[in-house]
Every structure is written in C-alpha cells, then in structure tokens.
Write a structure and sequence with these properties.
Layout (H helix, E strand, L loop, with lengths): L3 E8 L5 E4 L7 E3 L12 E8 L5 E10 L4 E8 L5 H6 L6 E5 L8 E3 L8 E9 L9 E10 L3 H11 L8 H13 L7 H4 L3 E2 L5 E5 L8 E8 L23 E9 L1 H4 L5 H9 L3 E2 L4 E2 L4 H7 L7 E11 L5 E12 L2 E4 H13 L18 H21 L8 E6 L5 E7 L3 H27 L8 E3 L5 H13 L12 H11 L5 H11 L4 E3 L23 H14 L6 H38 L5 E10 L2 E6 L4 E6 L9 E4 L4 E4 L5 E3 L3 E10 L4 E9 L1
Parallel strand pairs: 8-10, 11-18, 12-19
Antiparallel strand pairs: 1-2, 1-4, 2-3, 4-5, 6-7, 6-9, 7-8, 9-10, 12-13, 13-14, 14-17, 15-16, 17-18, 20-21, 22-23, 24-25, 24-30, 25-26, 27-28, 28-29, 30-31
Helix pairs in contact: 3-7, 8-9, 9-10, 11-13
Length: 690
C-alpha cells in the first residue's frame, strides 16, 4: 500500500475527515487534529499511518486544490483579536466571519469598514496560512443582510452553494436582444418554413398554481378515418396508412430554448455555469434571465411560441404506432393549474361531466373535458405498463409553506399528488425515453455512441444493498437483496411496506441505498424507471443538460453528426451538471429545513404525537407529522428513571432498568423544548410512549 495518496476530503460537524481515493473502496479517516487547513471538497495529499488497533488513518500533508475560496456566514466582533491585528486595524473593530457550513471548522478574520456585527456576509479567503494565534484572513465580497431576516437567510443558502442571485448587465442585455431578435410574436416566413405548425391543435400547459414559467405543454387531437400520417424522421408500419377512428395524435411540446440561447454566447456560458434553476421555499433562482425564462421561452397561454416537440400517433390504449420529432410553432389554448385540471378529471370520473370521446363536436370546447380525460386514460395505461416492467415509485410527502409579508411561515400544508400530476409525468417520461432511444440509435449508426447526453441510474451498490437488507429485516420485513437485484425486487418491497408505520422510513432508506442518477455521455439505462434509454429533454429553461439534448437532437434530425469540438466538452459538462444538481437540491432542502425550524419556534413547549424515524448513538430521531420536521430526543431527555443503550444492529434504544424499547416506526408523545435556527435542529423531550 502506498504511504501517500491523493483524494478529496469531506468533513463532518465534529471536524473528522474522510478522504475519498479514486479506485479505493473505503475512505481514509483523518482525525480532527490531522486535517490541517483543509476544508470540505478540497483535493488533498495524505500520508498514511497505522493507529493503535491496526486501523489505517491519514494525515493531510498538502492541499493541492481548494474547492472554494468564498464563504457565507455571520459577522461577529473579535474582542480577543491578537494585539498585532488590533494595531493593523488602527483602532477599528476586528471581525470574524463564522461560516454557515459548520463542516468548515474555521473563522475568517475580516478587516473591513463595511463589516457589521449581526449581519450575514460573503467573504473570500486571501491568506490561507494564518500566523500563530490568528485565523485565515479574508476580504468582504458583499453584505447580504441582517441575520435572521428572510431575504438574508434565503440568499445565504444559495450563495453558500455557489449560485449567483443576479445576472450581470451583459448577460441580461444578451437575453433581451435574443428575445427581441428571435421573437415568436411576429414569425417570419423563413422560420415558419422550418417548423411544423401546430397552432390549430388543442394545446395546454398544466403546472403548479404559483408557476412563473411554462416549459412544457401537451396537445391531443383525434384522428379522422381519412387522415394519413407520414412522419419523416422515424416511421413504423402504420405510417402512410389510413388509421381507424379513436386513434390519437399526442404532442409533448417543450420550450425551444436553443432557438434563443445560442452556443458560445455569454448567455450560454452563464447558463452552463449555473446548470440549474434553484427552487427555494419562497423564490426561484433562475438559470436564465426572466426576459427569457418567464418571457419569450415560456409557453404562455394565448401566445404563439416556438417549441421543440415529440409527437406520437397512438391507438386508443396508448400504444405508440408512429412518432415524429422536430421544431414547431404552438399556441396554448389554456393554462391549467394542477388543481383546475384535476377538477375536470374528477367531474368526468364522477359522471358530473359526460364525455363521449367519439363525438368530434365535444372536442376543443371548454372545459376541454374530452381532451383531458382521454390524455389521462392513456397516461394511466402507460403507468400500468411501466409498473409491470418494474418502474419504482419513490413518492414521498412534500410540504409547502404559507408565508407572511416578512417571509415567516404561518401555515404548512402537504402537496397532494393528483392524477393531473401523474398525467403530465407520464408524457414527460415518454418524451424523454423516446428521444434518448432515437439519439442513441442515430449515434450508434454514425459510430459516435458517446456523443449524447443521457440521464443514467446505475444498479445499486452491493454494500449499500446489504446494509438496507439488514435495516429492513430489523424492522420485521423479509428482504434479502441479491447481486442481481432488479427494479421489481425493490418495487415489491415498497409495496409490502405501504401503509405501515415504517413506510416513510423504509422508502427513504431504500432511496438512499440506490445509486444517484447522473448525466453521462454513455447510455447505461435507468434502473429506477426500468428504462433501457433515458435522457432529460423536457426542461431546458431550468436544466442545462436538457438544452444540450435539444442541440444534439436538432443536429441528428438534420442528418448531421455531433461536431467533435462539441463532443469533447460533453463529458465535462455532464460531470459539472451532476455536481451542480446535488448543490441545487441541497439548497432546496436547506431552505425547507430552515422554514420547518422557524415554523416550529412558535410551538416550543407544545406536545406532539411523532413517529420514530431514526436511531443514533446520541438519541432517537422523530418526525412531527404536520410540518414533516425531524428532530432529536437525546438519550438524556428520554425517561430520567432509566439508563439507555443503543442497539445499533437492531436499530433500537433499550432502557436497562425498565427494558423499555424505542423502535423505528414507534409513535411517541413528545414536548418541543428547543428550535435552533443556527443549527437548524429541533430538540424534543419524551412525554409518553404509545
């Protein structure tokens, strides 16, 4: 074994390091005193040594590359600054920036007239080699706002993860010029000749009630007996033949962002750097300036828009007989919220609205019941087919907050998953799958297999699967994952635990045991969906990889191959986008966690019935059902008349005197005793075990 290795270090809240070495199965552990000045994500060189019990440890001897140099945190006055620092400050206060990321176990020294105690700020470290008794020296990049105020806290979350909250003037100018120059408001003949005109076909968007942009729309029309379809880019046996009554043409139309965001522009480079829009509790940090994301690229109702479309001919059961891909012009007839679309579907299913799909006169008439009900019926057939093949449903409860004018949460509610949500999801999955297969086959024909962008989900890691098996069996379920586990095996487990007290916990544990879906230039299929081919084509307003898929598909439809100079950048963009996706999701979770704790602050002293969601050596984790807020009952805050030990093998806590057990899935009555926004932690005290 080499004595010196290079890898990427991560740190936990206690300062302990773990260095991931490429090709090595286990991380190298680094004790807090041996992490040096390394911070999470840094590339480091470690020297190995053998510990007291023969375990291998590492010591950071060199930092080769910093992951980041800018940090977000709170400013406090350093009243114990060394004398030489006070002298340098000329009698002015010396400040420390305490990073929000507690894994960055440092304080950054700030000498700046703009610094204010009690404010959130972003600072860049300029001197990483502190002198004796000193901390790393930094300079202020900007003041974010007063600590505890909603805007400052939300901006801190995204800035900490490297997402800008504004666009540069030059990027905004480019976006405005693109919106004007390539506008769909006055469509020139030259553009019309390149596109399929879908403006006479019923088209609608279905989105959340508070959506600001609409990047996908659905269309459907019933084909007449006499109609013939001849789709040019891929044909099946029905192309060019007369189709029986009750055959449909279904379109999935996606905003043609590539029409506006041209390769190599500053606008394109900024979108590539951001990679994703970030969705916080109270705001969206967009990938593109609003003149495009909420304007010309958004498929707004009653306006002509450029789209990139996948159009399918199906029979009455949704079996695909033919497909066509290409650029279109659409005109959305209706902007549905999910709730509005669901209301129509509910009225049809209850008989309040009578729909005869064979009556052509009932089509294209408000409330568009014929169109919605037929799309929904076909979507349900597609869902059943997916489930038969083993597609896994990891659906978990999501929450939303009602905020007051200051951004404080005053109410919380669960997002109900409706048929209208599933309807949209099925057609998006269909479009993504079909585009992936088309791109893969065209590239294979040209022997350029790695010139695509795919969304891949590999089979689960065996060690994680075995850990999951132990966990699930400890909760009383028979689950013995094998090396050749299939999506159907996971699907069967989730079906078995449905409705049980441990359902949510097992779903989350199963999800965490899965490999993470990533972007790749090599198609490897999607384990969770049980698809051989999958990409993401349907959200180019908010995901840069989708924009790349549009560009690649456009080239292939023109009979071209992906240029080599474009292809050589694809793998790096896939890696960067996969990383940025994790950071964007982490920001979203952090904003939710902050609001959960803020919401619960007003409830300190109240009692709740909660469910045990986890067991750790320091206590029992529980989840409150209303806000879905997870908190901790520390071992000392369990019943005081007993001494408790943790049975980690069986995931339970046991009282040594009373033999009282606390198991995952148990229901407890607890009192909330603390809600700390600094750590985003909730502390509970046991009242009663049910």
């Amino acid at each position: 074994m080499e004595n010196s290795l290079i890898g990427v270090i991560s740190l936990n809240a206690k300062g302990k390091g773990f260095v991931n070495i490429e090709g090595r199965e286990d991380d190298i552990q680094v004790e807090p005193e041996n992490t040096g000045l390394s911070l999470p994500g840094d590339t480091v060189q470690v020297e190995l040594y053998t510990g007291f019990k023969g375990q291998t440890f590492g010591k950071v001897v060199k930092i080769l590359e910093r992951k980041k140099t800018k940090f977000v945190g709170s400013l406090v006055e350093d009243t114990e600054a060394p004398e030489d620092v006070k002298k340098e400050a000329n009698g002015k206060p010396v400040y420390l920036l305490l990073p929000d990321d507690k894994r960055a176990n440092i304080a950054i020294e700030i000498l700046d007239d703009e610094a204010k105690p009690g404010f959130k700020a972003i600072a860049e470290i300029v001197d990483w080699t502190p002198k004796m008794g000193r901390t790393p020296r930094g300079k202020l990049v900007g003041i974010i706002g007063k600590k505890g105020e909603n805007n400052a806290e939300m901006e801190s979350i995204v800035l900490e993860r490297g997402f800008d909250t504004t666009f540069s003037p030059s990027v905004i100018k480019e976006a405005e010029e693109a919106a004007k120059e390539y506008s769909s408001l006055n469509i020139p003949d030259s553009e019309l000749s390149k596109r399929r005109d879908m403006r006479g076909v019923f088209t609608a968007t279905i989105d959340p009630f508070d959506a600001k942009d609409f990047d996908d729309a659905l269309s459907i029309r019933r084909l007449e007996d006499s109609e013939k379809r001849a789709y040019s880019n891929e044909t099946k046996s029905y192309s060019g033949e007369e189709l029986p009554t009750a055959y449909y043409e279904i379109g999935v139309h996606i905003a043609d962002v590539a029409h506006y965001v041209r390769t190599g522009t500053e606008l394109d480079l900024e979108a590539r750097r951001r990679a994703f829009s970030v969705y916080l509790v109270d705001r969206t940090i967009p990938m593109l300036p609003s003149v495009l994301s909420n304007g010309m690229c958004s498929l707004n109702p009653h306006e002509d828009r450029y789209a990139f479309s996948t159009i399918f001919v199906t029979d009455k059961d949704g079996n695909i007989l033919d497909r066509w891909f290409g650029r279109t012009i659409i005109h959305s007839d209706k902007r549905f919220t999910y709730e509005e679309a669901q209301e129509v579907l509910t009225k049809v299913s209850s008989g309040e609205l009578t729909v005869d799909a064979s009556d052509i006169n009932s089509w294209h008439k408000a409330p568009y019941a014929a169109e919605l009900s037929e799309m929904n019926r076909i979507a349900k057939n597609m869902l059943k087919e997916r489930q038969v093949k083993g597609s896994i449903d990891f659906e978990t409860t999501e929450i939303k907050f009602k905020l007051d004018e200051a951004g404080r949460p005053i109410a919380v509610y669960k997002k109900e998953r409706l048929d209208a949500h599933r309807l949209v999801e099925e057609y998006m999955l269909l479009a993504n799958r079909e585009v992936a297969e088309f791109v893969h086959k065209k590239n294979k024909e040209a022997r350029t297999e790695k010139f695509g962008v795919y969304r891949i989900h590999n089979s689960p890691d065996q060690d994680r699967l075995q850990d999951l098996g132990i966990f699930v069996r400890a909760l009383g379920y028979d689950f013995h994952p094998t090396k050749h586990i299939s999506p159907k095996d996971v699907q069967k487990l989730l079906k078995e635990v449905e409705g049980s007290p441990a359902e949510t916990v097992i779903k989350i544990a199963t999800l965490r045991s899965m490999a993470k879906a990533t972007y790749s230039t090599a198609n490897a299929g999607h384990f969770g969906l049980a698809f051989d081919y999958y990409t993401q084509f349907t959200s180019p307003i908010r995901r840069y990889p989708d924009l790349l898929v549009h560009r690649i598909l456009a080239l292939l439809l023109e009979g071209k191959t992906v240029p080599h100079e474009m292809a050589i950048t694809l793998e790096k963009i896939c890696l960067d986008s996969s990383r940025r996706e994790v950071e964007a999701a982490d920001a979203e979770r952090a904003s939710i966690k902050y609001k959960q704790v803020e919401y619960m602050q007003a409830k300190i002293g109240q009692t709740f019935d909660v469910t045990v969601s986890g067991i750790a050596e320091w206590g029992v984790y529980v989840e409150e059902p209303e806000a879905k807020a997870e908190g901790l009952i520390r071992l000392k805050d369990l019943k005081p008349d007993d001494f408790y030990t943790v049975d980690q093998k069986n995931y339970k806590v046991i009282g040594q005197n009373t033999k009282t057990e606390y198991n995952i899935g148990d229901t407890l009555t607890v009192k909330l005793i603390n809600a700390d926004l600094e750590t985003k932690m909730l502390d509970y005290q046991i009242v009663e075990k049910k």
